Amino acid sequence: MNVLPVGVDMSKATFQAAIWRSSAGQILGEYGNRRPDFETFATRGHQIQQEEGYETVHLVVEPTGGYEQGLVAFAYDQGWRISLPNPRHVREWAKASGRRAKTDAQDTLLLAHFAAERQQPAQQPLPCEVRELDSLLKRRDALEAMPRQERNRHEAYQHHPHAHPGLAGSFERLITTLEEELRTVQDEIERHVQRHSPIAAHVGRLTQIPGIGPRTVPPLPVLLFRWHALTGGRRSAKRFIALTGLDPQPFQSGASVHKRTTISRLGDRAMRRRLSMAALGGLHGTNPFRDFYDRLVGRGKPKKVALIAAARKLATWAWAVFASETDFDPARVAPAVSS
Questions:
Q1: Which of 112, 174, 182, 190 is the most exposed place for a label (fewest CB within 10 A)?
Q2: What is the CA 152 to chain-centroid distance, rounded?
Q3: Are 288 and 333 in contact (CB under 8 A)?
Q4: What is the pLDDT of residues 299-311, one digit of tens each?
């Protein structure tokens, strides 16, 4: 498909856009981060598309703390292709290309060039109910940290020789308020899942997998929905495992350099932690997951290595259940586990 690659460097109030033609880029200008300016930008993009015979526009935007979401939603309405590449991948590609300058204009041209050279897959929009669930989960994560922070401050002030006596009540009231708000958000998460049957169905199927429980879902289906949207459902379980950072990272050079294989630790750190905890939980009881772990240990694998491999197996099963929209079948995975 003949597409017009457009790079966008986003900030809170404005964004810069550039296009890339064969071997040279062109800055389109700076626009405000609001709908009237989106329309001005779209008019310019459509003009170039029609004059030069491009089939569509491919917008490549580097994620910037959520400030890009308004433009991305607008671009979907225009029928454009959208890609939000991992910023680390863009930086590594820039270094490999010999780029050293760091300005907004250079970053914009870099993204346009990256779009033209790397042929990024078009990302599909997440369903509205999944985006709303994701926002609730992010709020829950933030609220979970706040009471701990206040308790730590409270404890520290108790050892302060000149702390005001009224501070203790302030800490206690704030902790109570935060815990109540956390319960409110948690209740809304549960109601939201139940209100939307596609999410509820995925949650029900995923919790059939040994070890996956309330702390792993619903964050896990949100990540699975995002990965499906990012790739159009065309990627494999191995790629999803890489998204969690649980993929093995061997190190070998020549005949003499052999370092211990580790995991990449790239991608979603929170989900990697949740899957590791789910793996610990899955070891209780008799199930295919425990059989898989025991076989690894029986072959001489250290327990920590076996646990990481087990967490990777959970991610594989989760993707299979999500992509196929079928229930988890222990009998079906038993041959793969025993191999």
A1: 190
A2: 30
A3: yes
A4: 999 999 999 999 9
Q: Which residues of 291-300 are buried (b: 16+ CB within 10 A; e: fewer)?
A: bbbeebeeee
DSSP annotation string for 187-226: HHHHHHHHH-HHHHHHHHHHTTSTT--TTTTTHHHHHHHH
Terminal CA-to-CA distance of the chain, rounded, Å? 43
Sheet strands (E) in 62-102: 81-83
Burial of 81 (0-12, 13-18, 19+ CB in 10 A): buried
H helix or E strand, kind and range, residue 278: helix 269-282
Alpha-carbon torsion (125, 126, 131, 134), positive or negative? negative
- 């959208």: which residue's tokens? 82
Determine the residue type at 278: A
Question: Rounded to two decimals, what is the model's pTM?
Answer: 0.82
What does the pLDDT look like over 46-93, one tens digit per residue? 999 999 999 999 999 988 888 999 999 999 999 999 999 888 888 888
Spatial distance between the Cα atoms of 326 and 302, rounded to a whole number of angstroms: 33
Which 8-state DSSP code applies to residue 16? E
Which of 210, 225, 221 minimizes the C-alpha distance to 285?
210
- Does 3.30.420.40 match the CATH number of domain 3-118? yes
